[in-house]
Amino acid sequence: MPPTITAFENPPDRGAGLARDMRVRWALEEVGQPYAVRLVSFTEMKEPAHLGRHPFGQIPTYEEGDLALFETGSIILHLARHHAGLLPGDANARARAITWIFAALNTVEPPILDRETTRLLEGDRSWAAERLHLTEDRIRIRLGQLSAHLRDAEWLDGAFSAGDLVMVSVLLRLRHSSPILDDFANLAAYVARGEARPAYQRAFAAQLAVFAARVPKE
Ligand SMILES: N[C@@H](CCC(=O)N[C@@H](CS)C(=O)NCC(=O)O)C(=O)O
């Protein structure tokens, strides 16, 4: 039985690859692990069956035998530990690659998510414009630091790793809604390198197919 992940039945991003099942699909494709997908509606996500898999009623989840996981960082780390291709063999390099997973999720993604929250959910508040400006300043600081670390390297620490997979996924959230990324040419090129990977392309096509299946053909 292949592992099963969950994804939005009706993706709000219309298959743009922003829903977090995309990261897990990409990791599964990188390691060559076939998988099944259970699509869930917004109502089903908050019902007991799904809450049993994900206490916060979100996607994605990951089921493999009697193991059920939630949180993309944990799922990707699990995959990277049990399959070749996403973590280096050397113990120190492996620890550094795992560090980049945490850095992407804990240090780079939060200001990007803050900006999205303001843009999508708080736009009618009197303080929205000011807060948007503030979050963009914070994003710029983080991207400047990341850009200085990356310099002209291809990936964050030697060969492509799960750390790059998560970091590229996080940065991609910006590219769809803001030109900030373009101010950092090496980061824009880094994201493009991630997107060009055949495993990314397969994952993107698979999640887009879910949305396409819902759009009536003309
Ligand atoms: N920290 C979680 C975040 C999961 C998350 O925010 N999922 C979104 C989709 S990308 C979701 O399910 N949103 C619907 C909701 O929260 O009700 C992870 O990385 O897996």
Description:
With 218 residues, the protein is an alpha+beta fold. The chain has 2 domains: 4-85 and 199-212, Glutaredoxin (3-Layer(aba) Sandwich), CATH 3.40.30.10; 91-197, Glutathione S-transferase Yfyf (Class Pi), Chain A, domain 2, CATH 1.20.1050.10. 57% of the residues lie in helices and 8% in strands. The protein is built from 9 helices and 4 strands; from the N terminus they run E-H-E-H-H-E-E-H-H-H-H-H-H. It has a 4-stranded mixed β-sheet with strand order 2-1-3-4. It starts with a strand and ends in a 6-residue tail after the last helix. The mean pLDDT is 96. It comes from Lutimaribacter pacificus. This is Glutathione S-transferase.
Keywords:
218 residues; alpha+beta; Glutaredoxin; Glutathione S-transferase Yfyf (Class Pi), Chain A, domain 2; 2 domains; four-stranded mixed β-sheet; 57% helix; globular; binds glutathione; transferase; Glutathione_S-Trfase; Thioredoxin-like_sf; transferase activity; Glutathione S-transferase
Bound molecules: glutathione
Going across the biggest sheet, name each strand in turn. 2-1-3-4
How many helices?
9
Instruction: Give the proportion of residues in helices.
Output: 55-70%
Strand segment tally: 4
Tell me, rounded to a whole number, the average pLDDT: 96
Distance between the termini: 37 Å
Sheet bearing the most strands, described?
4 strands, mixed
CATH top level class name of the largest domain: Mainly Alpha
CATH architecture group name of the largest domain: Up-down Bundle
Count of individual domains:
2
Shape: globular
CATH fold-type name of the largest domain = Glutathione S-transferase Yfyf (Class Pi), Chain A, domain 2
Strand content: 5-15%
The quaternary state of the protein chains shown equals single chain
Cα-atom radius of gyration: 18 Å
Give me the secondary-structure category. alpha+beta
Which sequence of SSEs, written as H and E, runs from N to C?
EHEHHEEHHHHHH
- Uncertain segments: none
